[in-house]
Amino acid sequence: MAVVITHIRPGSSAEGLGIQPGARLLRVNGHEINDVLDYGFYTTATHLELEIQQPDGSMQRFEVFKTTHDELGLDSDSFLMDRQHSCKNSCVFCFIDQLPPGLRESLYFKDDDERLSFLFGNYITLTNLTEREIDRIIEMKISPVNISVHTTDPALRCKMMGNRFAGERLVYLEKLAAAGIEINCQIVLVPGMNDGAALDKTLADLCRLWPSVRSIACVPVGLTAHRQGLAQLTPFDAKGAAQVIDQIDRANEQMQKKHGGNLAYASDEFYLLCGRKIPPMDYYGELYQIENGVGMLAVLFDEFHAALKMEEPDNTIAHRCQIATGEAAYGSICALVREAAQKFPGIDCRVTAVKNEFFGGNVSVSGLVTATDILRQIGPAGETGRLLIPENMLRREGDLFLDSISVEQLAQKLGREVRVVSDGADLLDALCGR
């Protein structure tokens, strides 16, 4: 294995070495270089010995002296300097298997890449890793790692993930924890499979791995209308959602007695499903799982209320707008709008719960609302002014919805201004027309 060099950065330590684009970086100080993690880890030294295979096949050695923080300056076309690792599982709940046709190609790729877990917070299952790769994580102290556990029952994990090695790979979880690697765990809960007694066991097993396991997120299975040929699964109802929250609370009671804090959390969806109040901010600790929908509403409420508290009542503010949100968060957003209108009576805001017809099924979170459904269900400005949408409807780059329609295209098709709202304080500003 090696990394193909496609570019040498101007002004870098490597610029004057005579390395040609297309050359292969084989080793640095005797260590094989296979990807961006190897490259980043081994090129921090101040004295480097590089083994290079030039495009003509000739082998050369180069010596580099630099400071610790100076980059060597060799680049590859691929961000990972390697191909992206794909998933080897056939999970019964896999959301990608339930996607409708016609989306951008990248959405159908099932990644399961430990490099992306460290760099971007993606979740991995451990099923496609070798002992050598686990040892590398430990040696390089790649931390935190986000792991989709789902259950600690080996046989059940094999069944749910459609991989006969899924149970065996739980030993990697133990090995990482023993080495002090910080771990965030995810449990996708499927009624009748890994909830109930199975969830109690999983929570107990993972809590035992504290402090290496620093958070556990429980999220409900998402079922779209595109499940032809897939396993028959049922979504959570209010009773089942309340039971999950109760189980997590019991697990946290034990953690609080032993270690003084919470470790496991239900995603916001569970609270919305059963009509329970979202816990306050201090319940969620360091918010390790906010991207998983855990504590997202608590943060929004906290930011909004902090900003509102700083404001004086003002009868001169007059602004008309409309908010598009998912069905799950509709009641919460309406409540915030009412609070703002009490201090600023001139705010005239219509909140619209966009039904997710694009994915169908039980999908109701705002992060999966598409521009297609907004266009179908929300018309031109008329009497409702500009349209506000939450930032989580867009991909990480902040430009496209899941159906590959941009914010600019949506605004053009609607014939109205579309404003992306980034947080609670920004929501208040948008409601006030600022």
Could you describe the 3D structure shown?
With 434 residues, this protein is an alpha/beta fold. It folds into 3 domains: 3-75, Pdz3 Domain (Roll); 96-292, pyruvate-formate lyase- activating enzyme, CATH 3.80.30; 300-431, no CATH class. Helix content is 31%, strand content 18%. It contains 13 helices and 16 strands. It has helices spanning 36-42, 114-120, 131-140, 154-161, 170-178, 196-207, 238-259, 268-274, 296-309, 330-343, 371-377, 407-414, 424-431, and strands at 3-4, 7-8, 24-28, 31-32, 47-53, 59-65, 74-75, 123-124, 145-148, 183-189, 213-220, 264-266, 319-326, 347-354, 386-390, 418-421. Strands 1, 3, 4, 5 and 6 form a 5-stranded antiparallel β-sheet that branches. Strands 8-9-10-11-12 form a 5-stranded parallel β-sheet. It has a 4-stranded parallel β-sheet with strand order 14-13-15-16, sandwiched between helices. Helix 12 (407-414) links the parallel strand 15 (386-390) and strand 16 (418-421). Helix 6 packs parallel to helix 7 (238-259) and helix 7 packs across helix 8. The termini are far apart. The mean pLDDT is 95.
